[in-house]
Specification:
By secondary structure, the chain is mostly helical. It has two domains: 54 residues, Arc Repressor Mutant, subunit A; 160 residues, Tetracycline Repressor, domain 2 (Orthogonal Bundle). 70% of the residues lie in helices and 0% in strands. Helix 4 packs across helix 6. The longest helix is centred in the first third of the chain and has 26 residues. The chain is elongated. The relative contact order is 0.11.
């Protein structure tokens, strides 16, 4: 850590506020977050915390960014360690990394991907970049797989014209080259990936429905890879 002693102290205090905030997120829930409670656990008066974080909403934003970046870091590390030649394997690794993090950090996952916190609106200019790291990793993976000839899009229902118009806009925004049906299927895979994980994190299956939820998730990932048409390096 570089900078002046004052700079280092500020960085350490912000890290402590984030750490304690995440602890309260896990025990009390997002709606009950309190800067006074954070200050108490930090061992300072509440006015001292307000010099760093001005409101509950600012604390929520801090925790959102921290969670998105932690998830993004974990996903990027896992994908970087996977086979560079086989994009199907890289997709499976990415999906498992998201699930592993979500099960380890269910309260933060709920803040990122669960029900909105009443009265809170995330500031897009601060959260959009961190919040889109995983989907950008997915988009990059699918684009590289398409360029490498590792995607064969299955036949199926045609993309509706209104959806195709949106897909065209998305393609231009991200500089993609895949056809409409690939991008539409990729969006389905993105939504389904987080849907499968959310069902497990929020215990929507119930305690006795599946004896091996990890095997179930691996099967779901394989089906999603098939849906997009990821054939791998063969």
């Amino acid at each position: 850590m570089t900078g002046t002693p004052r700079d280092r102290a500020r960085v350490q205090t912000m890290q402590d506020i984030t750490r304690i905030g995440r602890q309260h997120l896990a025990t009390d829930g997002a709606a009950a977050l309190s800067l006074r409670a954070v200050a108490r656990d930090l061992g300072v008066v509440s006015s001292a915390v307000y010099r760093y974080v001005k409101s509950r909403d600012e604390l929520l934003t801090l925790l959102l960014i921290d969670g998105y970046d932690e998830l993004g870091d974990e996903v990027e590390r896992a994908v970087a360690a996977a086979s560079a030649e086989d994009f199907r394997i890289r997709f499976l690794v990415l999906g498992r990394a998201v699930r592993t993090w979500a099960l380890r950090e269910p309260a933060t996952y709920a803040l990122l991907f669960g029900s909105p916190v009443p009265g809170y609106q995330a500031p897009g200019e601060q959260t959009t970049g961190p919040g889109t790291r995983v989907i950008r990793a997915l988009i990059g993976l699918w684009e590289q797989a398409w360029a490498a000839g590792q995607i064969v899009v299955p036949g199926g229902a045609p993309v509706p014209p209104t959806v195709a118009a949106d897909v065209t806009r998305i393609r231009e925004e991200f500089g993609l080259s895949g056809p409409d049906d690939l991008l539409a299927r990729a969006i389905l895979a993105w939504a389904a990936l987080f849907g499968c994980i959310s069902f497990e994190v929020f215990d929507q299956y119930g305690p006795d429905t599946f004896s091996d939820v990890e095997a179930l998730f691996d099967y779901q990932l394989a089906v999603l890879a098939d849906t997009v048409g990821l054939v791998g390096a063969g």
